């Protein structure tokens, strides 16, 4: 049996994004962030596709995602765990050569314990608290960190020294980000005097790398932008306007296409309410089509009466409330339409594109949220 929608990943779009991003980051090492099931793209499908485009370093949030990445990757590809690992998973991570963040003494001590136990080095990224106030070593802990590592050099390989910014996608955080950049610099120097240096220094996510070039250092952790979405409208405008005032061309391509098909067609007279409740009243005769996808399938209820989809290369607005497993669209005036026709929920059809951001312009995080909520059971395939 088939799922009522499917997802396609475009390798050629991904290549375009990569080459744009590589131009922007210069010689820095590119880490592809694939947490949240590769922002909904599917770790198992996305990772090998990215590898075939030359990416060999991936970042996940937890050990579960790392395990999935591990079974999908080529032997020489590196995985970085930026967040949660249980102690018993730590041993597994070390034995499998995964790199992982340490941000407190507990994890640093455990890393040493399990490195000794498994006879392999713990490949660590030392996370520094610079102002996000989430995770990371405080300045007063640096001596402890340095001493423990220096006394156990056999068991540690310092892969990275890193931090994360408190919202580089918004101008409102400008001052805070600058302070964080300064703080990171100072701590980097301090660690150096304590004889701790790393192969990689990294701090930049998409927004930081594309707005504050100083944050690029020699490694970047890029999530949203590689998938062809901007972290925010501000980041988009800043980059497009800086690059090319006249053309205003978006250099990023949506990698993902999410599509379904028309389940049924119906004509409704003027003066009728559409779907549950009374949020949509027809003012004239309407042709409506039902699409077998709903909030239970990742199509946010927020898109009720606001979303758009593509049918026959034309934009069709969502009518009424999104139901659990279906929603209705206005296809009045679209010619030669029939049951079974392709409906594009996100992505391109003919010359039209539906971006996630265009759904709800007032929410900065809609890209991240809608993408990561795409159910993992929707079938995903890679196209050239
Ligand atoms: C998610 C994440 C990133 C990537 O962020 P984008 O905005 O998607 O580029 C980078 N670093 C950390 C620590 C993250 O959690």
Description:
By secondary structure, the chain is α/β, with parallel strands linked by helices. Helices cover 30% and strands 23% of the residues. It contains eleven helices and 18 strands. It has helices at residues 11-25, 35-39, 43-52, 63-72, 87-95, 105-118, 142-150, 174-193, 206-211, 233-243, 366-372; strands at 6-10, 29-33, 57-60, 78-81, 99-102, 122-127, 156-162, 200-204, 219-222, 256-261, 264-268, 286-291, 308-311, 314-319, 327-330, 342-349, 352-354, 380-383. Strands 1, 10, 11, 12, 13, 14, 15, 16, 17 and 18 form a ten-stranded mixed sheet that branches. The protein has an eight-stranded parallel beta barrel with strand order 2-3-4-5-6-7-8-9. Strand 16 and strand 17 (352-354) form a beta hairpin. Pyridoxal-5'-phosphate is lined by residues 33, 35, 82, 164, 205-207, 221-225, 231.
């Amino acid at each position: 049996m088939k799922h009522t929608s499917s997802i396609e990943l475009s390798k050629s779009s991904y290549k375009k994004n990569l080459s744009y991003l590589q131009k922007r980051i210069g010689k820095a090492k590119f880490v592809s962030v694939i947490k949240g099931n590769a922002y909904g793209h599917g770790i198992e499908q996305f990772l090998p596709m990215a590898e075939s485009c030359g990416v060999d370093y991936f970042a996940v949030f937890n050990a579960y995602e790392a395990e999935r990445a591990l079974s999908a990757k080529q032997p020489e590809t590196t995985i970085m765990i930026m967040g949660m690992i249980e102690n018993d998973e730590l041993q597994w991570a070390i034995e499998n050569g995964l790199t992982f963040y340490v941000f407190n003494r507990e994890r640093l001590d455990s890393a040493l314990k399990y490195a000794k136990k498994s006879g392999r080095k713990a490949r660590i990224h030392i996370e520094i608290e610079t102002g996000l106030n989430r995770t990371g070593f405080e300045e007063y802990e640096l001596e402890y960190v340095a001493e423990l590592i220096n006394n156990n050099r056999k068991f540690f390989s310092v892969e990275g020294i890193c931090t994360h910014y408190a919202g580089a996608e918004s101008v409102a955080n400008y001052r805070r980000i600058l302070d964080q950049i300064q703080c990171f610099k100072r701590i980097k120097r301090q660690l150096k005097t304590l004889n701790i240096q790393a192969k990689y220094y990294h701090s930049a996510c998409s927004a930081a790398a594309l707005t504050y070039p100083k944050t690029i250092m020699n490694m970047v952790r890029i999530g949203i932008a590689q998938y062809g979405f901007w972290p925010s409208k501000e980041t988009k405008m800043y980059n497009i306007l800086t690059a090319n005032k006249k053309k205003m061309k978006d250099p990023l391509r949506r990698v993902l296409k999410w599509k379904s098909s028309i389940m049924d067609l119906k004509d409704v007279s003027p003066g009728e309410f559409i779907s549950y409740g009374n949020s949509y009243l027809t003012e004239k005769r309407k042709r409506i089509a039902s699409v077998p996808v709903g909030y239970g399938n990742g199509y946010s209820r927020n898109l009720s009466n606001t979303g758009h989809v593509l049918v026959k290369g034309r934009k069709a607005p969502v009518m009424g409330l999104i139901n659990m497993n279906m929603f209705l669209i206005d296809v009045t005036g679209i010619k030669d339409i029939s049951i079974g026709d392709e409906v594009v929920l996100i992505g391109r059809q003919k010359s039209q594109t539906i971006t996630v951001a265009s759904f709800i312009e007032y929410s900065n995080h809609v890209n991240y949220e809608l993408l990561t909520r795409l159910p993992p059971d929707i079938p995903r395939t890679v196209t050239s």
